[in-house]
Automatic annotation (TrEMBL):
Cross-referenced InterPro entries: ARM-like, ARM-type_fold, EFR3-like_ARM, EFR3_Homologs
Pfam families in UniProt: EFR3_ARM (PF21052)
Protein's recorded name: EFR3 homolog B
Gene3D superfamilies hit by this protein: Leucine-rich Repeat Variant
GO cellular component, one term: plasma membrane
SUPFAM superfamilies per the UniProt record, alphabetical: ARM repeat (SSF48371)
Family in the record: Belongs to the EFR3 family.
């Protein structure tokens, strides 16, 4: 019977006859469209025949492939594509299985044209939205085969490009087909991502262009759109754009692995470009997940070369710049903790010369590479800080300050001869990080933004002998105080005849600013004064001190603060005149110039004509007789210095009595102006190496009088000698002994005394307490007076009587 059916065409099933009729005698003629329409109509009318149609087409295609009749292969695939586009019934699943079987057959072929043909058919299928789910369909083969095509090494470059582009399109089709269907294979599994992502990165890297590229490419020409690089980038962006919260890790991990395997961190350019694509493509609320993975990868490469770590840090820098504000994630301090840990490790590596501290059998570390890494980490810390709101930035500032080793406080330092140098390097690096974090810092309440736990340790570093540390502290203070971008206007120390050209932005000092200066003003002035006493100060130090003084009087000064700043400027002049200080001629001239420039600035801000006249007269005399006492004469590359400053004429000095007199007429506190400024000695002086043991023993303690806070009367200084210290120790020891004896007697009494005696003692105390409370209640709790009056009941008692309101007598002021 089957043989008869095979010989007689009329006895063959109708679907086979319809399928055979779409193939012409000559494959060059292409698909017979009229017969194809009949086949399509039949498939729509009898959907249960779709699986048989697909199976028969698959059989014919396999036979044609084996016989190398590639024209009929193309016709069969075209027919399959049209049937797929036309039929959306429940039986489509069985037909799809036959279709995928034919696509797999083409992809397994070694002919590039057949591979491209199969890929194009699969892409068309991927764009079809199926009405019925599929529970058993697998795309593992297609992921593997398309990934292999992406790495094609075909000899002909044009054909190789076509094969790679076909592979990229195939991967894009697999992603589109599976990413939104929960019943399909999970394309985000590591086994699939480890094939898809490296294939895309390989093509992105192989066609990388030398010119810089925009994160979001503009509309390009048709030829450029067809390039593998553009196609790969679009596919990569689409893949990342579809990634949900739980899939970000699986999508980014292969990228990190690819960078490691191909040593792409050292070049930085490609790694930065890839992560720019990632950061711009994923949803903005998921940005912190990428940053956390990069931080974890940085920790994992802690003992890798400095170039690798620097490349990861550069990528972090770019990622932080792209991330939206506040997207660093919930673990903000953990981000900075990781970066600071890498900074400290880099310093340790630079000092020890190896990654394990033994320098035996390990890679020799290049110091300049570690320095480049440290600078990159510092820039990254600043980039992260710029994405944070003010309150979080304040927390980061406190966090970094807590990491800085303070001499005399951090006593648990390892016994190593490199400790001083290592501690100093850590201080410098962390202070540089603080400079980056505080850059652009804006706050309305200085008290809450700069608590004592931050400001006190920061100012203590201004007493350290190292000039770079002191300069960094001053730069941090400038960033914190400058809230109106006035800092660039004080960049150079100079005498300005009219400060209106500076266009300073001056606002009225707020209540919070007044409280801040009342609490910390003297502290700041003291550290400015002591900073001018440092012999290692350079021109940059004096310029920064001038900017700090200028910002104080512009940003935070009220009338009382202005008086203190004038006293400070005059004290700096006295400091330059004092012969007891070990200052060089250059330092003395620089302090004179700093004082003159600042008094010239502050006199114009106070707008008191007599004050301005005195300052300008002294400046004119200096310009004629002593130009080295002005900024224009000392802050030069090769300044002309006098042989000595022991004899300075009074005409070139600013007179405190004259200034107090002219400002007193304008309502300023003359008593305070006439009092010379003397910085108080505190415990922070132990951080400065200027103090010797003898000076510490002869420390003079000054106690301000509390009876009159407005007057600056001081009690005579009490000299602390050996005898006073000995008597204080003996007295304190005697008091402690008496206290211990009293406690022993109380415990013994309660242990050995009878119960009645203890009860009587406690009862007497309770009675005494109750009587005192009754007295207090009688004094404080009294009934309010009644307008209706009282009635006497005799025996000294009285009772309120009720009087109608119309009979009450009210004061005249209450009646109208």
């Amino acid at each position: 019977m089957y043989g008869v059916c095979g010989c007689c065409g009329a006895l063959r099933p109708r679907y086979k006859r319809l399928v055979d009729n779409i193939f012409p005698e000559d494959p060059e003629d292409g698909l017979v469209k009229a017969n194809m329409e009949k086949l399509t109509f039949y498939a729509l009318s009898a959907p249960e025949k779709l699986d048989r149609i697909g199976a028969y087409l698959s059989e014919r295609l396999s036979r044609d492939v084996a016989r190398h009749r590639y024209g009929y292969v193309c016709i069969a695939m075209e027919a399959l594509d049209q049937l797929l586009m036309a039929c959306h019934c429940q039986s489509i699943n069985l037909f799809v299985e036959s279709f995928l079987k034919m696509v797999r057959k083409l992809l397994e072929s070694d002919k590039p044209n057949l591979q491209i043909l199969g890929t194009n058919s699969f892409v068309k299928f991927a764009n079809i939205e199926e009405d019925t789910p599929s529970y058993h369909r697998s795309y593992d083969f297609f992921v593997s085969r398309f990934s292999e095509m992406c790495h094609s090494n075909y000899e002909d470059p044009d054909i190789r490009t076509k094969i790679r582009m076909a592979g990229i399109k195939g991967l894009q089709g697999v992603v589109r087909k599976t990413v939104n269907d929960e019943l399909q294979a999970n394309i985000w599994d590591p086994q699939h991502m480890d094939k898809i992502v490296p294939s895309l990165l390989f093509n992105l890297q192989s066609g990388e262009r030398t010119e810089s590229r925009s994160p979001s490419p503009l509309q390009a020409s048709e030829k450029e759109k067809e390039s593998p690089v553009e196609l790969t980038e679009r596919c990569f962006r689409e893949l990342l754009g579809r990634a949900a919260y739980g899939n970000i890790k699986n999508a980014v991990s292969p990228v990190l692995m690819h960078m490691d395997n191909h040593s792409l961190w050292e070049g930085k350019i490609f790694a930065v470009r890839c992560f720019k694509i990632i950061m711009y493509s994923i949803q903005s609320q998921h940005s912190h997940l990428v940053i956390q993975q990069l931080l974890g990868h940085l920790d994992a490469n802690s003992k890798n070369s400095a170039k690798v770590r620097a490349g990861i840090v550069e990528v972090l820098l770019e990622a932080a710049a792209i991330a939206a504000s506040g997207s660093v994630g919930p673990t903000v301090l953990e981000v900075f903790n990781t970066l600071l840990r890498q900074l400290r490790l880099s310093v340790d590596y630079e000092l020890t010369g190896s990654y394990d501290g033994t320098n035996i059998g390990t890679q020799i570390i290049k110091a300049h590479e570690e320095r480049q890494l440290q600078e990159a980490v510092i820039r990254t810390i600043g980039s992260f800080a710029n994405t944070l709101p003010t309150y979080q930035r304040s927390e980061v500032m406190l966090f970094i300050m807590g990491k800085i080793p303070v001499p005399g406080v951090n006593l648990t330092l390892p016994p190593n001869e490199l400790v001083p140098q290592g501690t100093q390097m850590i201080q410098i690096m962390l202070l540089k990080s603080l400079v980056q974090v505080t850059m652009g810092f804006q706050t309305t309440n200085m008290l809450t933004a700069l608590p004592d736990t931050f400001l006190d340790p920061l100012l203590s570093f201004s007493l350290i002998n190292h000039p770079e540390v002191r300069l960094l502290v001053l730069q941090i203070l400038l960033s914190l105080i400058d809230r109106h971008d006035n800092r660039p206007k004080f960049a150079t120390v100079c005498i300005i005849s009219d400060i209106s050209v500076l266009k300073l932005k001056v606002d009225k000092c707020s209540r919070q600013d007044n409280l801040f200066m009342k609490k910390h003003g003297q502290h700041l002035c003291r550290h400015i004064y002591l900073g001018c006493k440092e012999q290692s100060s350079s021109q940059q130090h004096y310029e920064t001190l001038y900017a700090l003084l200028g910002l104080l009087c512009v940003e935070l000064a009220n009338e009382e603060v202005v008086v203190d700043l004038i006293r400070l400027a005059l004290a700096l002049q006295d400091l330059a005149l004092c012969t007891d200080e070990d200052l060089t001629i250059y330092n003395r001239c620089a302090v004179h110039a700093l004082s003159a420039a600042y008094l010239n600035l502050i006199c114009q801000l106070t707008t008191v004509p007599a004050f301005c006249q005195h300052i300008h007269e002294v400046i004119e005399v200096r310009q004629k007789e002593s130009p080295y006492l002005l900024p224009e004469g000392i802050f030069l590359e090769c300044p002309t210095l006098p042989p000595s400053l022991e004899r300075v004429e009074s005409g070139v000095l600013f007179l405190q009595s004259k200034i107090a007199e002219v400002l007193g007429g304008s309502g300023y506190n003359t008593d305070r102006l006439a009092t010379p400024y003397v910085p108080q000695c505190t415990d922070e002086d132990r951080l400065s190496k200027r103090k010797s043991i003898g000076e510490t023993i002869s420390l003079q303690v000054e106690v301000e009088s509390r009876n009159s806070p407005e007057k600056e009367e001081r009690t005579p200084a009490e000299e602390i000698t050996f005898e006073t210290l000995k008597s204080a120790i003996v007295d304190s020891a005697g008091m402690e002994e008496q206290e211990r004896e009293r406690r022993r007697q109380v415990v013994e009494k309660f242990q050995k005394a009878p119960f009645e005696e203890i009860a009587a003692h406690c009862g007497a105390r309770a009675t005494m307490l109750q009587s005192k409370l009754n007295q207090i209640f009688e004094i404080t709790i009294r009934p309010p007076p009644s307008p209706s009056g009282t009635i006497s009941l005799g025996y000294g008692q009285s009772q309120s009587r009720s009087v109608p309101i119309y009979e009450m007598k009210f004061p005249d002021l209450c009646v109208y």
